[in-house]
Amino acid sequence: MEDNNDKLLDEKNEAGQAHPQDFALPQDIQHLILASLPGRLVLKRRRVCRFWRDCIEEPGFIDRHLSNALRFHKSIACFTSVDGGLVHMYTFDPTTMNFKSMDLVFSCRFQMSGPCNGLVCSYDLKGAPEVFNPTTRKHLELPVSEIQSQSLFSEYFLGFVQSTKQYKVVGVCHRVRSLTFEVCTVGTLSWRAVRESADLLKSTKAVIVNDVMHWLLLDEASSHFTRKILLLNLTDEKFSETSVPDAVKDRDLELFEGEGKLHLWSNAGKGSASTVSEIWVANSTCQVWMHMHTIYFPIPAGMRPLFLHKKKLFYSDQIRFSYFDLQDGSDYYVSMPFVFQSFKQAKRKVNMEWRMTRVA
Predict the structure, then answer these.
(1) Is CATH 1.20.200.10 the classification given to domain 74-357?
(2) Would you say residue 299 has pLDDT above 50?
(3) What is d(CA 97, CA 93) in angstroms, rounded to the nearest whole number?
């Protein structure tokens, strides 16, 4: 049906005055405009005429559109997953503090990785993961490796290697006494084990900055303290470790991304009378840390930092969403869409994922 509609539109455009050769704008300018539009508008505009469709379907168009999206379309992606495989996507503009509801998407997986250039890796704790595009609604199911099938459960994270333009999915396979890390390059449909370790991660949720994934390593099973950060470079798929600042080694720590850099949030932890927390920022190699800011405002229990954007620290739990303005020292609550409250009141299974991403 869609092909027939495209053919009909092409015939009408060629017969009428909607042909791009009749436009006042040169064709190369039309190329630039199309590559600057949000993804959902691009999908609609491909039906206008054959010329625009051919422009959009060029192999190089995807790279140009992605480059523009990374530069100009900066927003936060929020996903809610409910029973039946229904995924609701929102975008949040940190400048206007407004949410925008996107179209509903169906996925048979409930867990969501953080978005990467508009793509998401969805998965169950047992079973095959898939990479899908909420804009085009296209799904790519990945295979299940032998290690994953023998694991207690697995988690998956999606990253992008800028130098090779490749997407890679990292699987963290939980076994009885160890974790096994596997990598699958999207398009190859095969997994390769890159590390097996008995190290304990404070959180298996990877914090991705550029093309490097980061995890906090626990000192021991009975402790929540950490003195090391585990890094996985997606380009060469090699692991390394770096230390946290000496001044925060005996404090409760969380990693988060902020404007292309790795940040560390430290607080006194549970049971402490101190409400002071600190933000540290790492250099590009994560070998040098600089103290960035001290927060005297008490962050509510259960809230964890999500990202830093224009001197605003956004943090959340599964229900609340707030930010702390580092410049004026004030804390603000952000109202979430009504549908979140509807899901909560209906006591349906809800999973929210907040990640800083560029949504084209």
Answers:
(1) no
(2) yes
(3) 5
